[in-house]
Structure formats: structure tokens, C-alpha cells
Amino acid sequence: MHVRLLGTGAADGWPNPWCACASCADARARGSSRRQTSVLVDSAVLLELSPALPPDGVSLAGVRTVLVTHAHPDHCAPAALLWRHWALPHERLTIAGPAAVLEECRPWLAPGSPVDLVEAVPGATLRCSGYEVRVLPADHEVPTVLYDLTGPDGGRLLYATDTGPLPAPAVAAVAGAEFDVVLLEETFGDRLDHGTGHLDLATFPAQLERLRAVGAVTAGTDVVAVHLGHHNPPEAVLTARLAAAGARLLPDGAELRTGAYRRRPWNSDASAAPA
Ligand SMILES: [Zn+2]
Ligand SMILES: [Zn+2]
Prior knowledge:
Elements: E1 2-7, H1 22-29, E2 38-41, E3 45-47, E4 65-67, H2 79-87, E5 93-97, H3 99-105, E6 115-119, E7 125-128, E8 131-137, E9 145-150, E10 156-160, H4 168-173, E11 181-185, H5 203-213, E12 222-226, H6 235-244, E13 255-257
This protein binds zinc ion (2 copies).
The site of one zinc ion has 4 residues, from loops.
């Protein structure tokens, strides 16, 4: 499985274009810019209909399945379907997501266009063009799902944003999964009083512990923090904090290959680099 991070930022990206805080200023000074979180798997499966254009050089022409987590506009910006229609009016596409996502998408589809809208209900398993997609519950402000994706080559990915601490049924559903890659949101950094359905630097490590305890995250799992916002500390500090929890920070455009990342046990060498 080939995983391309199209975006790794929160709803407002990072830096927030309207903000002059130290965290945003640091990102600007380093030329770092994170788009809204979105991921491309094997050039075939797109996670989220992002309002952002993909990083330079990335084509979405091969996408046949789109998995959307929820109807917030940083995840479901259906004007993208119009751009696609102008280029690929006759190619089939399946879009899966909660009912509100499908309602957002429907007005953007041309009459008779070969796009299937499939409701993603927690607990269901969808089969899309050789991929097995298990739908998991999230804890967020609006109906939201997480995706457990297994590819034709057996690679397995957990895509978990947007959510607060994982609902118990989500953790139970991935027991023994031994994911190759876990993309887990960490929106709020050191701001712990946000009171939203998101994770922060206190709740993020706790979720990884729960996933380790059930064998979903192992020493061989590449854990990457996504949906990053400016309440996080500057990147150098955040990198070290995440490493202590067994997770990595990667820039937009980064590529991961399942099976290519193997490290020593996370707590014995927190600074391990990718193999
Ligand atoms: Zn979001
Ligand atoms: Zn959201």
C-alpha cells in the first residue's frame, strides 16, 4: 500500500492564514504550510474531499473511491466533484460517507453521472475496487466515521480524524489489527480546554496506548499525527513530544509505503527514523 499525505493540517490549516501567533509565525518562517487533512492511497482511494488542491505533482485521475469522514467543510468540499466532472465525466466513482456527506455531494453531480453514493454506517464493511473498508464510529460534533482500510496487497491503514477520545466500539473493532499505518488526529496541541470532539497532546498519547493494548498498534506500526492546528507548539518541539508517544510528524506531500517502516519498540528508541 502506498500512502500519500495530501494534507496534514486542521480545518484552518497550519499556519492559519489569519493568525500571527508564535506557532504560526514559526511555520511561516520555515516555509511550512499544512493543507486540510486528506490522504491518497495507491492513487486509487481518496480520503476526504478536501477544499485544498493536492501538493504539486499529485494527480487524482486514478481515484475510483472517495471515503469522507463527515460533512464539516474541511473534509467535505464537494466543488471538487465539479472539477472532476470537467475532466472525467464518464468514469465511475464511488463516494462513501455519512448521510449528511452524501446530501452535500448530491447537488454537485451532473444528471446521469456515473457516481455512486454509499452511506457509511459504523460497523459496516464496504468493498470498493479491491479494498476492504471497515467503518468505525467517532466522537465528534456531527455524525462522523473513521476508516479501517485494507488494500489488495494486505496493507492496512487506520484513518482516524476528526474524533475525540475513541469510542470503545471503535477500539474493540480494531483489536489485533496490527496496522501498518495509523493516521491519528492531534488537532489542539497544548490547548486542553477546547471542549471539542478532537484530540490534543494529552489525549493523543492515551489513544495510542489504548490501541497498543488491543494489538492494533504494534512496534511495526507507523503512527503519524494529522489534522494539526496552531495550538500545537512549534514543529521542533512537537516532533519531540510526538516521538515520546511513538508517533511521527510528516509534511504535506510525504509518502509512506506499508511494510517499509519497521522500528525498535517505541519506548526504547523514541527518536528512531524510518527504515
Ligand atoms: Zn476537521
Ligand atoms: Zn470536523
